[in-house]
């Protein structure tokens, strides 16, 4: 069964609930996992959310690096432990690993070393997520946002090396369109898809632009996709665009699942 959500802060959960969305997808970094006092203060809003916090994105805060010379393994391991604990407590099912800056390979750093570091990270995440009910979805980003993992196929390449049920892949329509990634990659890698992000022309709300949604939906249908579809984009008029986009999403993806 497909579910529809939006990437927003937890303060907008009531608004999304009002318009009939199935879940909210929030930034994991907003949980302030490295500040226990503040984290406990913030946690209540997620536990009491009128909508399920089905997914989290923005996995790492901006000052954590996961590749390059400034990687701090001990800090990362502590963060992953707290992240898994919090997501399990909240009841989330998906955690999106985007964090383009965190994984961007710095100048002068060898690519093979960066890839090894990323594999270590994914291995650590798989260990922490075991038994938590949460699946990590590796998010490919367009070339303007990162130089490591820029396509669904590349994300699957890393997931296969870990070969753990908690490590899967996300497909983001915006990033795919930015780099002209073929949509049939959705069916080619159907067994690895765990989550979907969508937007429309200009990274605005679904249904307002010229993205080839009919083909995108056809590929997801052929892939047998059943999971969350989150809009991740800018909004100019919330009270108009949220209900209109939800109607568009339901109409577009009605044959899925």
UniProtKB/TrEMBL annotation:
Residues 14-250 form the Xylose isomerase-like TIM barrel domain. PANTHER family: HYDROXYPYRUVATE ISOMERASE (PTHR12110), INOSOSE DEHYDRATASE (PTHR12110:SF41). This is Sugar phosphate isomerase/epimerase. InterPro entries: IolE/XylAMocC-like (IPR050312), Xyl_isomerase-like_sf (IPR036237), Xyl_isomerase-like_TIM-brl (IPR013022). Coiled coil: none annotated. Keywords: Isomerase. GO terms for molecular function: isomerase activity. Pfam families: AP_endonuc_2. The keyword Iron does not apply.
């Amino acid at each position: 069964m497909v579910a529809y959500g939006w990437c927003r802060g937890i303060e907008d959960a009531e608004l999304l609930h009002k318009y009939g969305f199935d879940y909210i997808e929030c930034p994991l970094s907003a949980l302030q996992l490295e500040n226990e006092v503040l984290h406990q203060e913030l946690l209540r809003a997620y536990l009491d959310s009128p909508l399920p916090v089905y997914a989290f994105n923005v996995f790492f805060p901006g000052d954590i690096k996961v590749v390059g010379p400034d990687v701090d393994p001990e800090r990362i391991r502590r963060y992953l432990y707290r992240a898994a604990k919090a997501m399990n407590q909240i009841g989330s099912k998906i955690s999106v690993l985007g964090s383009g800056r965190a994984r961007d390979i710095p100048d002068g750093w060898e690519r093979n070393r960066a890839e090894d570091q990323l594999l270590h990270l994914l291995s650590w995440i798989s260990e922490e997520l075991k038994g938590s009910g949460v699946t990590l979805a590796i998010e490919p980003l367009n070339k303007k946002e990162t130089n490591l993992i820029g396509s669904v196929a590349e994300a699957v390449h890393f997931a296969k090396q870990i070969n753990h049920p908690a490590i899967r892949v996300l497909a983001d329509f915006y990033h795919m369109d930015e780099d002209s990634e073929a949509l049939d990659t959705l069916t080619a890698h159907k067994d690895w898809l765990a989550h979907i992000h969508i937007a429309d022309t200009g990274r605005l709300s679904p249904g307002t632009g010229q993205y080839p949604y009919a083909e995108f939906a056809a590929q997801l249908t052929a892939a047998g996709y059943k999971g969350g579809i989150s809009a991740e984009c800018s909004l100019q008029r919330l009270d108009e665009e949220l209900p209109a986009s939800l109607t568009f999403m339901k109409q577009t993806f009605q044959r899925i699942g």
